[in-house]
Fold Protein kri1-like protein.
Amino acid sequence: MLKKKEKDEKEKQQEEKDYIQWLKGKRKGLEDKQVENELKPLHDYWNNPGLDEKEEFLKDYILNKRYLERDSQGNIEDSDLSEDEKLLEAQENFEHNYNFRFESEDNKTIKRYPRKIEGSMRRKNDARKRKR
């Protein structure tokens, strides 16, 4: 008889913004007191004025979603990948393609070839025989 109200996308986005603002220290409290009580130590630690430089970077990285930053072409930057990692990634792609080569779209039908292909066998030169 009673149903739990489902949140729409707008409400979820607003709740996420409120949550991030609370963690940054720009908001007093959250609507969900259970989440607020669970994350109170993190909130207090990140809003400590004597926060270490590395911890400040981590806070910025997580709250501002720096891990999702993309370059001008829309690709996630991999400039920090070494040549070995790039080579390893290329090898993994090749291995994946090789292992699943029979599962590609082309291989859903059985390929058939005719028994006699005109250009595959040497023809007998019957021209002299036919002239007689």
About this structure: The radius of gyration is 33 Å.
